[in-house]
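User: Can you recover a sequence for this backbone? Please restate the input before giving your answer.

Assistant: Of course. Working from this structure:
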């Protein structure tokens, strides 16, 4: 028999931004598809008119693209597929696997309250299950528009064979005759998902385990439609450090928030892949390696705990090993976005200087934002002098020394204006004078950048660039005389 091609889907509801938990589900689907040369389908589940926010579709697409999780088919929108659900519902109705229910929301609510008062689990009581054609006609004549309910078995069990959890058994008596089509013709979640997964030829349903409780209902629908089941894999939740479900109150949860904090997409992908999945104790995976090594069996059945420190550690790894040119471009974009410098000014700074800033700072900086903060004061033309620092460090004695140092460094050729060469030069110069680095480090830094905090002196000199650096060393004396 020909093997079915793997087809998986990611099915977000546009009710919130793409959360890291959702992104991980998307990633697992994407990895599984790529590993098996399958198809990754994107589908928006947007039939919940009350909670649906169409303006979130675009940001969700953007987040997926940023993570590099390109889909092969879609995006499909459930709201555009209503006739398909209605057609399948009609089929179930004709075969006696579904029936019209005329109960009004008020009647159902009253029954629900009564059940709760009597400490029973609220379930539909089957009022409309055995209506005669005459009774139905009468109710229709009253102007009632029916919903369609599924005829659920009252006995036995339904077993979800889950790849991650093993078999999970549900008692059918706990499943009531649930609604599949609302009276306005919109499908309910469980029904739409099955019709979609079926008609889209989905072979593996990989999704969050909050949906495990829905799966027996979906299995019953598959069977009623005479269809084969897909493979189910329910991925455990993502918890915060306090072991409650990761949510807004724990801080950043949306993929975009991590992007804004200067996390690289490859770091987040690597991090999310290892969140609940493992391959021995390997931590760092390239995308290709993830595709090669990923398996559903490698996903752990227990919840995973989100660890910001580990994400930062991975981000640092990718910052340390990434292409400086590419990272430099990203740092520049951040610097502008954060308003550290203007667009035009950023453009004037050569690409090579941005790249060099990355090389010089990446051992110590873990995010693109930290890199931008460190680099901008050294790359920009504008220096804002802190009057206190000027008063404290740019004394006449020190500025005379800086001037002398500037004169000495004049001899360093442009092409050799590097941190290493400058360190040699300056240490030699200090030794000749019997002075120590600490005597000039702070004055020099203030003259170059206006402030006392910052990276190493030699890196600072290199990045500021020869011409600018010498000018600032020369002008330090004048500055000290009129600090404003
Ligand atoms: N739309 C559902 C959600 O966003 C996913 C349903 C599914 O994957 O079956 O949670």
């Amino acid at each position: 028999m020909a093997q079915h091609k793997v087809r998986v889907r990611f099915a977000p509801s546009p009710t919130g931004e793409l959360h890291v938990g959702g992104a991980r589900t998307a990633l697992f689907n994407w990895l599984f598809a790529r590993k098996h040369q399958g198809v990754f389908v994107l589908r928006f589940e947007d039939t919940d008119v009350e909670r649906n926010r169409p303006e979130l579709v675009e940001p969700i697409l953007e987040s997926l693209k940023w993570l590099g999780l390109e889909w092969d088919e879609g995006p499909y929108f459930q709201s555009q597929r209503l006739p398909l659900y209605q057609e399948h519902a009609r089929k179930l109705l004709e075969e006696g696997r579904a029936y019209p229910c005329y109960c009004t929301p008020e009647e159902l609510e009253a029954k629900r309250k009564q059940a709760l008062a009597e400490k029973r689990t609220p379930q539909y009581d089957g009022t409309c299950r055995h209506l005669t054609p005459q009774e139905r006609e009468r109710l229709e004549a009253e102007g009632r528009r029916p919903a369609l309910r599924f005829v659920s078995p009252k006995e036995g069990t339904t077993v979800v064979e889950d790849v991650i959890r093993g078999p999970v058994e549900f008692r059918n008596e706990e499943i009531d005759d649930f609604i599949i089509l609302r009276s306005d013709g919109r499908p309910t979640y469980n029904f739409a998902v099955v019709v979609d997964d079926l008609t889209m030829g989905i072979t593996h349903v990989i999704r969050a385990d909050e949906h495990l409780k829905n799966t027996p209902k979906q299995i019953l629908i598959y069977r009623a439609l005479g269809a084969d089941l897909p493979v189910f894999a329910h991925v455990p939740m993502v918890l915060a450090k306090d072991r409650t479900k990761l949510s807004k109150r724990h801080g950043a949860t949306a993929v975009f928030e991590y992007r804004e904090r200067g996390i690289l997409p490859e770091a987040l992908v690597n991090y999310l892949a290892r969140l609940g999945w493992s391959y021995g104790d390997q931590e760092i995976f390239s995308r290709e390696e993830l595709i090669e090594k990923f398996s559903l069996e490698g996903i752990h059945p227990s919840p995973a705990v989100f660890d910001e420190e580990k994400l930062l550690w991975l981000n640092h790894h990718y910052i340390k090993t990434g292409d400086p040119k590419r990272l430099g471009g990203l740092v520049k974009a951040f610097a502008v976005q954060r308003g550290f410098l203007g667009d035009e000014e950023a453009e004037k700074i050569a690409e090579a200087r941005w790249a060099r800033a990355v090389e010089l700072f990446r051992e110590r900086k873990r995010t693109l934002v930290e890199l931008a903060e460190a680099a901008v004061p050294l790359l920009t033309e504008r220096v804002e002098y802190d009057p206190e620092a000027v008063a404290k460090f740019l004394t006449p004695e020190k500025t005379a020394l800086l001037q002398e140092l500037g004169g000495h460094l004049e001899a360093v050729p442009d092409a050799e204006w590097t941190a290493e060469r400058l360190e040699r030069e300056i240490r030699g110069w200090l030794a000749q004078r019997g002075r120590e680095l600490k005597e000039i480090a702070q004055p020099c830094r203030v003259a170059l950048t206006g402030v006392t905090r910052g990276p190493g002196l030699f890196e600072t000199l290199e990045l500021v660039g020869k011409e600018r650096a010498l000018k600032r060393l020369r002008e330090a004396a004048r500055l000290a005389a009129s600090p404003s």
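That completes the design. The pocket of glutamic acid is lined by residues 11-13, 45, 193, 207-208, 211 (CB under 6 Å).
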